[in-house]
Amino acid sequence: MNPDASDDEVPSLVEPETNTKVLDDQHDEIPGLVTSSEDAPQAKVPITIVTGYLGAGKTTLLNYILTEQHGKKIAVILNEFGDSIDIEKQLTVSDANSTSAQPAPFVPLANGCICCSVKDIGVAAIENLMEQSGLFDYILLETTGLADPGNIAPMFWLDDGLGSSIFLDGIVTLVDAKNVLKSLDEGLGDEEKIEERKKEEHDEHGPLLTTAHLQISHADVVIVNKTDLVSEEELETVVQRIRSINGLAKIKTTTKSQVPQLEGLVLDLHAYDEVTDADLKFASKGHSHLDPTITTSTITFPALSRAQVDNFDFFLRTILWEEILPNSASHQPFEVHRLKGRIPVQDGNLLLIQGVRNIYDTNELEAEAKAENEGAKLVLIGKGVDQPAFNESLLATLKR
Ligand SMILES: Nc1nc2c(ncn2[C@@H]2O[C@H](COP(=O)(O)OP(=O)(O)OP(=O)(O)O)[C@@H](O)[C@H]2O)c(=O)[nH]1
To answer: Chain centroid to CA 340: how far?
Structure first.
């Protein structure tokens, strides 16, 4: 059930060159490169985004973390999104300063953590709050139940490259084992979205893309909660379905959101700065396609010559920014939510690729031992990703 990538050795980073690229919808020209700041990376605070539909167990998870002794000072931020959520009621842990007359943005909690609620989850708003809060070493951001993590993640990922004091560690999605299949099949909770779709004149959307799909396809870890409400067989069906949507995510089953080993499952995921061979191998094992909307596809190809590196970059830009397959007759619409790749170059270097929606990042590691023997792997999670057509398009583009 679990890729168990944590045991695998992490490739040593040899002064990587980082190019983060983003499509700017406002301008026609190809956007320029955004290069990572080399200043004091140790000062940056990781942020984990916690998503999941209403009632999946997000608050229960945060309560669990905030009462555990994990040795970290965590700032929990709840995205209230206009609803007036009373965090002191929502979080049952005791508030050491409850008598304070001053309405402080942060509530100090018993185990040294702090908690606050915000409407705006922009980077600037969060950094601003952080300045007021004093020291902490981790941020957990709980989104509203209907949030699309694909819209939130890029804000934190990109700002990392712009000298922010926070960096995106990963996305954890909670699902309710009892209701998730209904959410995926019927868009449970997505009634407005479905109505909108029905109103559209030319409905060529294909299978329903629900909020549950978006939350699972972007996840680095999926916590399948409320296992006490389903049978073992039902749980296995749920896990298989999630695995077929997202072959890269770790899956953990829980009751009452209890994740005894927080590290690697909620905290310190390093999902945006590591691409391990074990992760990609697991994703490419050929899990059955059980979901009509989202699949995980893997393209494998031989190591690139130095001259092909630019062609490969052109392929990525075209699929992610223009959403078309270069050098291909296929016009099937597609959207890529998450992408990871390890691409050896014949000179011995290794390209590590990360992508979320239309943003991607390439790290080139110098002279990785045996990288060339690995074979290149590109894993894509998304809608309408036709593996043979993608494979053909990539090979045709590399030949140019
Ligand atoms: N049976 C069962 N109930 C659970 C489990 N985990 C959480 N609950 C209950 O499910 C309800 C919803 O849990 P929350 O943690 O509030 O869920 P949430 O995702 O934060 O929900 P919103 O804040 O509404 O988005 C609460 O009453 C929890 O006590 C579980 O594993 N099994």
So the answer is: 11
